[in-house]
Amino acid sequence: MISFSPLQIHRLKYQPQLPLLLQDLSVIAANFEKSICLSDSALQEQFPQTFQQPIITFRRGNKKEATPLKVGVVLSGGQAPGGHNVIAGLFDALKQIHPESILLGFLDGPLGILKNTSIELTKMVIDSYRNQGGFDMIGSGRTKIETPAQLEAAMLTVQTLALDGLVIIGGDDSNTNAAILAEYFKQVGVKTSVIGVPKTIDGDLKNEFIDISFGFDTASKIYAECIGNILKDALSAKKYYHFIKLMGRSASHLALECALLTHPNLVFISEEVAEKKQTLQEIVGQITTMICKRAEKNLHYGVILIPEGLIESISEIGALIQKLNELLFSHSEKIEGLLITEEKDNYIISQLTSNEAKTFLALPKEVRDQLLLERDSHGNVQVSKIETERLLIKLVEKELKRLKQEGIYKGTFSPQPQFCGYEGRSGLPSNFDCQYCYALGFVATLLVQSGVTGYMSCLKKLSEPIERWSPMGVPIYRMLQIEKRQGKQKSVIRKFLVDLQGPFFKQYASVRDQWQITDDYRSPGPIQFEGPKNLTEVKPLSLLL
Ligand code: FBP
């Protein structure tokens, strides 16, 4: 039983607009562009069947007869607003192509494919999730499909269900898995098309073919609303320093977008910290310098944004995390066998170099424990569980005490830790995400209908009006590179990080000194669904710049 608020009910009726080309699927034709042979031999070896596939664009063609399609869809990884609309788009496009087409939803992420647990997504189901946040229609999960046994289980499922297509809605890792699955299906002669859809609030699944991943727009607007409110509170109470950690794993796109929407006093950009090889002490120094400057002006409050990936970008801690990743992977049995945390700590310390051990021991016990938590299924440290905001507060407090004793700092420091995380991932999607996702579902359907596999559903020209958005199918292979993961060379989709030479970062760099001392705070308020276009159709700044 789902219970709806008045706004949720209202949003169920919102009809996303479609790009012109997608408005009548009976007259759309696929163009197979000239294929480009890439010269990465390691990748070619792994993808012998799919590495030469061409990019697909679409044009208006002649009216065509269509047969019904049977498609399975799965939501993979962290929630991102708009996922339900991709599924609604798939459903509407499939029914437009042929009313007897069927859409199945795999339950609880890729595990549903391995276990062959799915439900039929009927009109009644779809209609109660249109334009709604979350992934609760079918659930999500982080199970990977990459071992021979998993690939075989997936093959059995698609064959048993006689699927024409399998649509994987996921981030970089899930889409890498989609490419592996497509290659495997081709090798064993399975005809099911595997199509990816670019999802992640982190904004790091972006490249020459993907203007932006879905979910980023809504998440950044929800976080910006919270930050804007906190800024107002800070300005009113004039007594708190808010340390706000923001989701976004390795990339700081969310932090940068929110910064430009709200103008806080200080923002760390992980990519810059990594490039400058900044140490923890330097980061703390940057914060205390600002606090001292503000105290001289009798300002004892402020707001600092901390991307969750910052911890991994700090020079000595990043190196330590890499070492811990390797240790937790290669010594897993031994470490898991040690039940007492002290024994675990001691064993880990015995495996570190003296510098690494010094860094590890200098961290508060809670942070040390958080650094040792289980890695996610892709071998990543779970940065959302590391309380970097609290770590920085502790260290800043200590440093300010020292500065006070030396007579350099004459203020009061009252910190508040905050985390903008899970609440941004499942909010009601913005109009932009509703429309983008709905159209992505249409493009994915067209790719299944074209019979291709190993492709990503893409829409280009997103900064232009919707009518002009340009649907494309791009071989996922074109986005891959070889990286070292869990001690092995693996093909993965290139992550898009903040470009420190790009206009977006430069815009922030040109104003950040001013933000430190003058309170230029802005409060963007909640996402607007109705009203003038300059409020309802606002696109992400990182897309427009
Ligand atoms: P995806 O990369 O799967 O889209 O997930 C993004 C994210 O929200 C990150 O911002 C965050 O670090 C992580 O998921 C949290 O993961 P979990 O849901 O497993 O706690």
TrEMBL record:
Transmembrane in keyword set: no
Positions that bind substrate: T200, I201, D202, K239, Y240, M247, G248, R249, E308, Y422, E423, G424, R425
Positions contributing to diphosphate binding: G78
Enzyme class per UniProt: transferase
Coiled-coil regions listed in the entry: none
Notes on activation and inhibition: Non-allosteric.
Site, as annotated: Important for catalytic activity and substrate specificity: D173
Domain (Phosphofructokinase): residue spans on this chain: 70-322
Keywords on record: Cytoplasm, Glycolysis, Kinase, Magnesium, Metal-binding, Transferase
Localization annotation: Cytoplasm
Predominant location category: cytoplasm
A Gene Ontology BP annotation from the UniProt entry: fructose 6-phosphate metabolic process
Reactions this protein catalyses: beta-D-fructose 6-phosphate + diphosphate = beta-D-fructose 1,6-bisphosphate + phosphate + H(+)
One GO location term (cellular component): cytosol
Pfam family, one: PFK
Top-level taxonomic group: Bacteria
Site label Important for catalytic activity, positions: K199
Active site residues of this protein: D202 (proton acceptor)
Pathway field: Carbohydrate degradation; glycolysis; D-glyceraldehyde 3-phosphate and glycerone phosphate from D-glucose: step 3/4
Enzyme Commission number(s): 2.7.1.90
List of residues binding Mg(2+): D172
Cofactor(s) demanded: Mg(2+)
Annotated family: Belongs to the phosphofructokinase type A (PFKA) family. PPi-dependent PFK group II subfamily. Clade 'Long' sub-subfamily.
Database matches in NCBIfam families: PFKA_PPi, PRK07085.1
Name of the molecule in the record: Pyrophosphate--fructose 6-phosphate 1-phosphotransferase
